[in-house]
Amino acid sequence: MRRAVCPGSYDPVTKGHLDIVRRASRIFDEVIVATGVNVSKSRFFSPEERLGMLETATADLPNVRVAGFTGLLTDFCRDNDVHAIVKGLRGSGDFEYELPMAQMNAHLADVETVFIPADPAHSFVSSSLVKEVASFGGDVAAFVPDFVLERLNARAAERSRGA
Ligand code: PNS
């Protein structure tokens, strides 16, 4: 069984993420989309909300399941018999950011990182940018599934009211 993990913050999941997950699901027997904690990023959605959105967004992919993790990604890989970490690369900035993590993860566990080049249509899309634009009332409908857009706009409105 070739099992891979697509780790990320997914705060929230974007169409760019989903393109990578879908393409990984064609390469591996099983793909686990795992929401982790990036200590350097502030969060819009709770872990439970992010997991729920990922479950809905990947429901059409039979060999994909969703999980959360809190500690090291390599511990998650060991516990789940995962030997491949899949990451999307939008450009050289992503590569600079991802390479040391891939090397550290390979040092920590028997796991390879596989990079999939992003579709150019998604090369400028990130959760951070989508949240920022939505927070100021901008239109991000092209970049997230419709049900995520509703949640995002509702959360942005709550936050602007200070709720
Ligand atoms: O979507 P992101 O924010 O780029 O995801 C980053 C994430 C959550 C995949 C990364 O921060 C991570 O793997 N965190 C778990 C803790 C860990 O293993 N850190 C060491 C990485 S070498």
Top keywords for this entry?
163 residues; alpha/beta; Rossmann fold; five-stranded parallel beta sheet; globular; binds 4'-phosphopantetheine
Could you characterize what this model shows?
- The protein is built from six helices and five strands.
- It has a five-stranded parallel sheet with strand order 3-2-1-4-5, with helices on both faces.
- The protein has one domain: Rossmann fold (3-Layer(aba) Sandwich), CATH 3.40.50.
- It has 163 residues and is of the alpha/beta class.
- The chain has helices spanning 15-27, 47-57, 73-79, 92-108, 127-135, 146-160; strands at residues 3-8, 30-35, 64-68, 84-89, 112-117.
- Bound molecules: 4'-phosphopantetheine.
- 4'-phosphopantetheine (PNS) binds at residues 7-9, 36, 38, 41, 72-73, 101, 104-105.
Average pLDDT: 96
Number of helices: 6
Q: What is the share of helical residues? A: 40-55%
> What would CATH call the class?
Alpha Beta
Output the radius of gyration. 16 Å
How many individual domains?
A: 1
What is the CATH homologous superfamily assignment? HUPs
Strand residue content: 15-25%
Query: Structural class of the secondary structure composition?
Result: alpha/beta
Question: Would you tell me which CATH topology applies?
Answer: Rossmann fold
Low-pLDDT stretches:
none
Q: SSE order in H/E notation?
A: EHEHEHEHEHH
Kindly, what is the distance between the CA atoms of the first and last residues, rounded to a whole number of angstroms?
Answer: 46 Å
